[in-house]
Amino acid sequence: QRLGGYGMGEVKVYIGQRLAYDDEKIYIGAAKDFTRLECDPLCVMLTENDGYERYTPVGISDGDFIRGGVPMTRAEIRAAVISKLCPRCDDICWDIGCGTGSVTVELALHCSDGTVFSADDNAEAVSLTEKNIKKFGCDNVKIFCAHAPEILAEFPAPDKVFIGGSSGSMSGIISAALSKNPRAAIAATAVSIETVSEIISAFKDSGIDAPEILQLAVTRTKRLGSHTVFAAENPVFLIKGERV
């Protein structure tokens, strides 16, 4: 049932029940064929997935995500976030202000043996994140519809933190993360000068005086009649802080 819920109902499975006993049974078929199978507690299942990912994607195309009326971190910005945070396979990651869940998905794909804890106080954002983690087969995500930093008391100590939205609580979020793990790497994005200032001040309040600041300006091409022209996206600031 869990494989089917993540769009992997066609994966081939072998289920061995009471192996080596006189009444042993072996079932072979697609996962979707056995969602209602009642097995003896003494059983084992092996899966074969010919359609597994051959690589870990970075900067997944924006159009691949299920979209709604909440903001989404664009592909190029996500790629920069992942490159700065460098999530390891067993990391515990936080995504605060998860929006559509695009960063949650990319973090989850990189920390396949870890867990991503995502939070947003917008119910639509949480619903979209749930849909996107299902679409991309990320079962290592825990999602909360709650306000940060209050919910962060329930989260485990993070290795990596991404803040896509803080609702004015940037300082509290950064402080909560560093109180649980003083060595956590934290990245936040901003589109306004005021938010950049808020992030820098929040880092300074937590003992990080010189965060790394990048301004990312993406320009894409588009067709206009018979010509190809450039269309600039709004610049985004990426600020990363980490205690040394």
Low-confidence stretches: none
Please report the total strand number as a whole number. Answer: 12
Helices and strands, in N-to-C order?
HEEEHEHEHEEHEHEEEE
Note the main sheet.
7 strands, mixed
Mass-distribution shape: globular
| CA-based gyration radius | 21 Å
Classify the beta-strand content into a percent band.
Answer: 25-35%
Look at the helices and sheets and give the structural class. Answer: alpha/beta
Q: Provide mean pLDDT, rounded.
A: 95
The percent range for helix content is 25-40%
Number of helices: 6
Query: How many angstroms does the end-to-end distance come to?
Result: 45 Å
Record the strand order, biggest sheet: 6-5-4-7-8-12-9
Task: Write a structural description.
With 244 residues, the chain is of the alpha/beta class. It has helices at residues 2-5, 75-85, 102-110, 123-135, 170-180, 193-205; strands spanning 12-17, 25-30, 43-48, 92-96, 115-120, 141-145, 160-163, 185-190, 212-216, 219-224, 227-232, 236-241. The strands form three sheets. Strands 6-5-4-7-8-12-9 form a seven-stranded mixed β-sheet, sandwiched between helices. β4, α3 and β5 form a beta-alpha-beta unit. It is globular, with a radius of gyration of 21 Å.
